[in-house]
Design a protein that fits this description.
It is built from 13 helices and seven strands. It is of the alpha+beta class. It has two domains: about 1-100, no CATH class; about 120-274, DNA integrity scanning protein, DisA, N-terminal domain (YojJ-like (1), CATH 3.40.1700. A seven-stranded mixed beta sheet has the order 2-4-3-1-5-6-7, sandwiched between helices. The longest helix is centred in the N-terminal third of the chain and has 21 residues, at about 15-35. The N and C termini lie far apart (about 60 Å).
Length: about 270
């Protein structure tokens, strides 16, 4: 304990910066694994490390040697256990928007995306279709892609390759349509595919009351920069999901505003490019 106290008393400016960086990275890593089974593993590893340092302090040679072996193998174990989280973090870092957009960025926590122009996405037909399906209580799951175009997800469905149309979206999700199950993938101004299979979230903090559509919307937005729109078959309510976070019971006007905010370039960005 005296050694630790002396170390804290002798901290210099560079060491304080070093501690701040480590604390920041640890917090971001915690946000990634929060709500997953990986959190319990991390807490166990931290407990083992603390016990190892205590054993060293009291010169428990056999215990120290054993824990030293365990910790030396910990890196490989972490890579295996945290494979999904590491894949998601690496995807976030490789997203060009994380470098290009100076205003909106969060390391590991969220994806920054390239905004597209108004000519590349017809919002009105999407809003109209969602409004009509909400009134008829027709269940729907619509995915609007950005940088990550989800080719593997598109491959699981039926190719459509058509311009966005309110009537087409409603016909696809009509209850007797063979394409109504699964997700509709929209890229820019085209409906790429329907009846696509999405990854379901593994987050244990998600409410058990949520159905498969909402869980799939959370899952795909946890792993990509897409925006997911869900129309509930039970209540007719409209929700949207970004970065694994769901906003429930939005009006068509609110949905339009969110899509415009998420996809359209701001005037300030256009001025910078000019």
């Amino acid at each position: 304990m005296e050694t630790i106290s002396e170390w804290f008393l002798n901290l210099d400016f560079i060491q304080i910066i070093d501690l701040a960086i480590v604390a920041f990275l640890a917090y971001q890593f915690y946000k990634i694994i929060k709500g997953t089974s990986a959190l319990n593993v991390v807490l166990s590893i931290i407990g083992i490390y603390i016990f190892w340092k205590i054993a060293q302090q009291f010169e428990l040679s056999i215990t120290t040697e054993l824990l030293d072996r365990v910790i030396s193998m910990g890196l490989l174990a972490l890579v295996i256990v945290f494979q999904p989280e590491l894949r998601r973090a690496l995807f976030m870092l490789s997203t060009p928007g994380a470098i290009q957009n100076r205003r909106k960025w969060l390391i590991f926590g969220r994806l920054n995306t390239r905004r597209i122009t108004r000519r590349e996405l017809s919002i009105t037909p999407i809003i109209q279709a969602c409004m009509h399906m909400s009134q008829e209580k027709t269940g729907a799951l619509i995915i609007l892609t950005q940088l990550n175009r989800l080719p593997s997800t598109v491959a699981t469905g039926e190719k459509v390759d058509a311009l966005i149309s309110s009537a087409l979206i409603e016909n696809i999700f009509f209850k007797n349509s063979p394409l109504h199950d699964g997700a509709l993938i929209i890229e820019r101004n085209k409906i790429l595919a329907a009846r696509c299979i999405l990854p379901v979230t593994a987050n244990k903090n998600v409410s058990a009351a949520l159905g498969l559509r909402h869980r799939s919307a959370i899952g795909v937005t946890e792993q990509s920069d897409a925006l997911a729109i869900v129309v509930s078959e039970e209540t007719g309510s409209i929700s949207y999901c970004l970065f694994g976070n769901v906003t429930y019971n939005v009006s068509p006007t609110q949905l339009r505003a969110k899509i415009e905010e998420f996809f359209y370039e701001h005037k300030e960005d256009e001025k910078e490019q000019n």
